[in-house]
Design goal:
The complex is a heterodimer of chains A (about 140) and B (about 70). With about 140 residues, chain A is mainly alpha-helical. Chain A folds into two domains: about 70 residues, no CATH class; about 60 residues. In chain A, helix 1 runs antiparallel to helix 2 and helix 3 packs antiparallel against helix 4. Chain B has a two-stranded antiparallel ribbon with strand order 1-2. Chain B is built from five helices and two strands; from the N terminus they run βαααααβ. In chain B, helix 2 crosses helix 3. The chains are: A mainly alpha (about 140), B alpha+beta (about 70). Chains A and B meet through helix 3 of A and helix 2 and helix 3 of B. Chain A: Keywords: Membrane, Transmembrane, Transmembrane helix.
Chain lengths: ~140, ~70
């Protein structure tokens, strides 16, 4: 990857985290009536700190393994397989879960519960993708 | 059922090339080299050609088909 593209990607990611944080301040402010801009500093420190940890880890990895890429053709093939399998598991698993819930007499689902369910799915799919990448 | 077998490990060890060195030169991961050497993964045509060029051996010396007896 070109150095310029890499810098743009990092800037977009860090920028998006900061914008997300600001949106959080705005949402809390619109609910409570007070906009707490003191939270801005922790947001910036958190985003930049996280980026620094990532940068440090990638430099350390490069020092240990040399100039070896993180991803190659085999990793991409494995990821494709993993995501195609996990898609079906999530799709049919969710369908089965809905059927079970309906059979149990549950007729409505709270949006909050759906958010929790999606978070659990993202968590497990993310962990699985990480493990697949290391294979 | 046929299986692709290769002699990459033998040739690599004979030349004293480490997996890390080979991974760096071919821009692939060390895990991929291990998988290819253990016949667990068949490289793409592009990578196979790169391997042939890197090790400087004819294709038939590097890869061959092993047919299972039924």
């Amino acid at each position: 990857m070109k150095k310029r593209t890499e810098i743009i990607i990092y800037a977009v990611v860090v920028g998006s985290i900061i914008i997300g944080g600001l949106l959080g301040i705005y949402i809390i402010g619109s609910e409570d009536g007070t906009y707490n801009f003191e939270l801005f500093l922790p947001i910036v420190i958190g985003a930049l700190g996280g980026f620094m940890v990532f940068l440090f880890l990638s430099k350390w990895r490069q020092k240990r393994n040399g100039n070896v890429p993180e991803v190659d053709e085999r990793t991409i093939t494995l990821m494709k397989k993993y995501f195609s399998i996990s898609l079906y598991i999530v799709l049919f698993g969710s369908g089965a879960l809905l059927l079970v819930l309906f059979a149990m007499g549950v007729e409505s689902i709270e949006t909050g519960m759906l958010i929790v369910y999606m978070m659990i799915i993202y968590f497990f799919v993310g962990i699985g993708a990480f493990v697949t990448k290391q294979l | 059922m046929t299986k692709v077998i290769n002699h990459i490990k033998e040739i690599r060890l004979k030349r004293g090339i480490t997996q890390i060195q080979m991974a760096e030169d071919l821009q692939i991961t060390r895990q991929t080299i291990t998988a290819i050497e253990n016949n667990k993964y068949n490289p793409s045509l592009e990578l196979a050609l790169k391997l042939i060029q890197y090790l400087g051996v004819p294709i038939e010396e590097l890869f061959y088909l092993e047919e299972d007896e039924v």
